[in-house]
Amino acid sequence: MKKNYFLAVSLLIAFAGCDNTEIESIADNEQVAAEVSAGIDGLKTRVTDDSEWQTGDVIGIYGTSGKLTYTAYRYNLIEGTNNFEPNSSFSTIYYGAADGEFSAYYPYVEYSKLTNYKTIEGNIIKQQKTNYSPVGVRGQDRIDFLYATAKGTKESPELKFQFAHKMSKLVIRLKAGKGFTTVPFASWYDLTFSSSANNLHSKVIFNPKDGTVTPDGAVDKLAFLYTANPRVSGKEVKKDGVIEYVEFVYILCPGESVQGGLKFDLHYDNKNEGTTYTTQLYTDESKTKFETKEGTQYIYTVTVNKTEAKVTDTSINDWNSAVLPDNGEVDANS
Questions:
Q1: Contact 245, 183 (CB under 8 A)
Q2: Domain 7-165 shares a fold with domain 168-333
Q3: Considering just the CA atoms, what is the radius of gyration of the chain in Å?
Q4: Looking at the DSSP assignment, which residues form a beta bridge with residue 235?
Q5: Which of 17, 73, 257, 264 has its CA 20 to 30 A from that of 313?
Q6: Domain ranges of the chain
Q7: For the chain, how many helices (H) and strands (E)?
Q8: What CATH superfamily is the domain 7-165?
Q9: Domain 168-333's class?
Q10: Which span out of 116-120, 234-238, 299-303 was modeled with the highest average pLDDT?
């Protein structure tokens, strides 16, 4: 079931990139500000929790209205509300002499820090730490790229932005099986995703103006290591006070296609013991491939036994959700 959350935002557009005729047209007529509502597709609007916008969130806005143009304007969330406000008096937005067309993006990166003043780089391996500094952004939200478009007029000034996730999300839930009395999977485990041929990209480029995500560089395997910097560890999920599973969440490049399925290795090494459990992840009922689509999350529940790991539940859904073969249940052997 999809829920849409709408946030009221008052936006004012600065007189940047306009000529005297445009300024005089606005000055001689009643000024009309764009009124913006912004929602995010999917039940979960964040990688790590069920919240909508969070304290400190910032969005950026591009747009045109007549001869006025707006590039990466910053709007800050008003704490305790679902509203945004311009970062300063210089980023106020009014409609020009013509209808307005706008786009918005998250996370916000100021214009001067965009790569070549155009794009944002995303590092999939270092999901907790990237080489740019989005404002008000924490952890994996740094590469949870969101994008939306909207149009408005002076007569109908409200803009309804409906943000969509532009990346894919992979969720691995580890449950204790035979030989385990608890779920000791939050630490000391390295999770590696690979295939017979390298098919996964570790870097992407996001264009905040048009919302496109493109892979960057060569394909490789993805290794998320507990011993690396930043450290990758799982989140314990409890039910009735008891740990039900440990969840690992990864943002992936959309548009990937791995023929033969995606190999998943769970390696445990506490200096005294080293064990690797292996399984295959599929997204199609015929179990021939693993593919990623933008705005879609893939959830696999893996039961780990002393002798093997078994996927006991799978789902693909709109973040958006999707249905996986065997409800996400697969076997992984050591």
A1: yes
A2: yes
A3: 23
A4: 247
A5: 257
A6: 7-165, 168-333
A7: 1, 27
A8: Fimbrillin-like (2.60.40.2620)
A9: mainly beta
A10: 116-120
